[in-house]
Amino acid sequence: MLADTQCRNAKPKDKPYKMPDGKGLYLEVKPNGVKAWRYRFELREGGIVKESLFAIGGYVTAPRGETLEEAQARRAGGSFTLSEARDERAKARALVKQGINPAHKRQLDRIKREQEGATTFDAVAKEWLAMKDWEDATKARRLNMLERVVFPKIGTLPVKSITPAHVLDVLNNAAKKNGLTVAAEAKRTMSGVFELAVSTLRADADPVYPVRKALPANKTQHKRPLDQEEIGQLLRDVEGHGGRHETIAAFRLMWLTLCRPSEAVEARWAEFDLDAAIWRIPAERMKKRKEHVVPLPRQAVGMLRALQGITGHREHLFPHRDNRSKPMVTASFRQMLNVLGWGGKYSPHATRTTGSTRLNEMGFASDWIERQLAHTEVNTVRRTYNHAMHVIERAQMMQAWADMLDTWKTDGNKVIPIGKAAA
User: Fold this and answer.
1) Which of 114, 298, 311, 321 is the most exposed place for a label (fewest CB within 10 A)?
2) Is 358 helix (H, G, I), strand (E, B) or coil?
3) Residues spanned by CATH 3.30.160.390 within the chain?
4) Cα pseudo-dihedral 400, 404, 407, 412, rounded to 10
5) pLDDT per residue over 361-395, tens digit each?
6) Membrane-spanning residues where (predicted)?
7) What is residue 284's DSSP assignment?
8) Residues 226, 299, 236: CA angle, nearest 5 degrees
9) What confidence tens digit (pLDDT) does each residue in 294-321 have?
């Protein structure tokens, strides 16, 4: 067995040489003066006994007065005294007896440490968000929610250490300060983040699941279809709002075409052929990543021709109030609706639900309606063979829809027999 004096006084030679300590451990002295601990062992792999080498680390003498924390840091850096090298040999021998290669075990431990270094909740959440095939604006809104509601509570915690109690605290706080809708969004988002963490072995379970029903259901019917009277009242209220002309125009375009709120506010002039009364929304701006052709009723064409004199020289139909090179944001709709007293009763997303419901009542073909809403056919056979865009039929349908909107807005509380619109 070696003595520490021998290790400390070993001098380099022209070629590397070994100083055995026993049980496979030896000190290798290299020509450049480096002294390194090595452990030689035999391991059966695939029925064959193979000899392998495990590099423990470099030789060092412990500094005088070294603290426990300093010694741990030194060993983490790969420097070991004689007695510490023997301890590492004992650990390695125990692994070999279990059929485990200590070099492979150390490599796995390193990978786990690297993963744990990037496993705070906020790191995994941003990774999850980056993987989503969403519009940049959608990602920005979701990140904003995380930064306001979730990260202050659990953002810096290792994702593996977060418990259902942590999640429940986030949800209760969100419901109290931001409402049930935001709390529900936080719950869905956190569950998605934990799903990624579990699938990448950075967490053992989704702590959202045990508390998923802890909050009362959100009873606000933001997406229920509006009836005729409500549609008429909403359109009259918006028309008399007196706010930004661009906000009102974007809102009208959304209702006249039943497009998504983001598709309306981010519309570009290059997408429109007003002579042909067609709006082609490019694939990158669509939820399903497919170009969507939207027929425009006369009311929409007239409104947009008038708008050209105001914003036609810019890229977007509805420029942002503060930065005219960017489009307005959907939050402008919510702000307007809150001022008008419609907040909590209706959200812009309910426009499409309303349109679908009323167009079906008006007797139009469901294929036309689904195509207008850019929905994907659920039936795979129908989706394969039904490639028709029904542009002509949809143009007739949307003209009838626009005319009916005018009627509901003009006639106030007078109920119009809805089935007659399709005639």
Assistant:
1) 114
2) helix
3) 4-104
4) 180
5) 999 988 899 899 987 654 544 444 444 467 899 99
6) none
7) G
8) 40
9) 999 999 999 999 999 999 999 999 999 8
Q: Which CATH class is domain 121-211?
A: mainly alpha
Cβ partners under 8 Å of residue 225, min gap 6 = 350, 353, 354, 356, 357, 358
pLDDT of 322 over the 90 cut: no
Residue 419 pLDDT class (50, 70, 90 cuts): low
Pairwise CA distance, residues 334 & 342, whole Å:
9
Q: Which of 413, 339, 398 is nearest to 368 (CA)?
A: 398
Helix (H) or strand (E) holding 294: strand 292-295
Between the CA of residue 273 and those of 279, 291, 312, what are the distances in Å?
A: 6, 15, 13
The residue with tokens 């020509």 is 31
Q: Is 79 helix (H, G, I), strand (E, B) or coil?
A: strand
Which helix (H) or strand (E) segment is 91 a member of? helix 82-97
**Is it true that domain 4-104 has CATH number 3.30.160.390?**
yes
Domain with CATH 1.10.443.10 in the chain: 228-422
Q: How many CB atoms lie within 10 A of CB 286?
A: 17
Mean pLDDT, rounded, for 208-218: 85
CA separation for the pair 93, 24 (Å, rounded): 9
Query: How far, in whole angstroms, is CA 133 from its chain's centroid?
Result: 8
H or E, element range at 17: strand 17-22
> DSSP secondary-structure letter at 215?
S
Kindly tell me if the per-residue pLDDT of 3 is higher than 90. Answer: yes
- DSSP states of 31-75 as a string? TTS-EEEEEEEEEEETTEEEEEEEEEEEE-PPPTT--HHHHHHHH
Distances (CA, A) of 405 to 102, 279, 397: 74, 20, 12
